[in-house]
Amino acid sequence: MRACTPFAMVLLCACAAPTPTPAASAPAPQTAVAAQPASSYVELTNPADGTRIALQRGGELKLIFDAQPAYNLQWESGPAPGPVLSPIGQRIFVGKSTNPIDYKAGAWNVFRYRAEQAGRVTLKFDLRPFGEVGPAVKTLQYDVAVE
Length: 147
Description:
The structure is a single chain. The chain is mainly β. It has a single domain, classed as Immunoglobulin-like, CATH 2.60.40. About 10% of the residues lie in helices and about 45% in strands. It has two helices and eight strands; from the N terminus they run ααββββββββ. Strands 1, 2, 3, 4, 5, 6, 7 and 8 form an eight-stranded mixed beta sheet that branches. The N and C termini lie far apart (about 75 Å).
């Protein structure tokens, strides 16, 4: 009887290994992140939908989202979050490239808020073509608690 080479043994073991079922290989659904202890400053980049945020009164919240200027897609904030939060300025658009006309490099939309008084509010953001009204391509919501 002839002995198997190491390469043949690897192939034999690979063929004998069980194949994963589609349910086992599917990614787990995205879950909301639990709130951390209240902080005076929170900065989140592309947080998961449903993330809970805890701020101290007088604190600042900064949310950064990837925008897609090559497809004319920008993030817009929902209704005013007052009186619990107040926006600090308007939405900021920051390109990811040093070349200001390079839209393929992507961009960020930055939203800033100040925690004015204790309470809870839900922040809503819609991704849609810039300046257009209609259904959003994507919607995200965040629960903010001010202590």
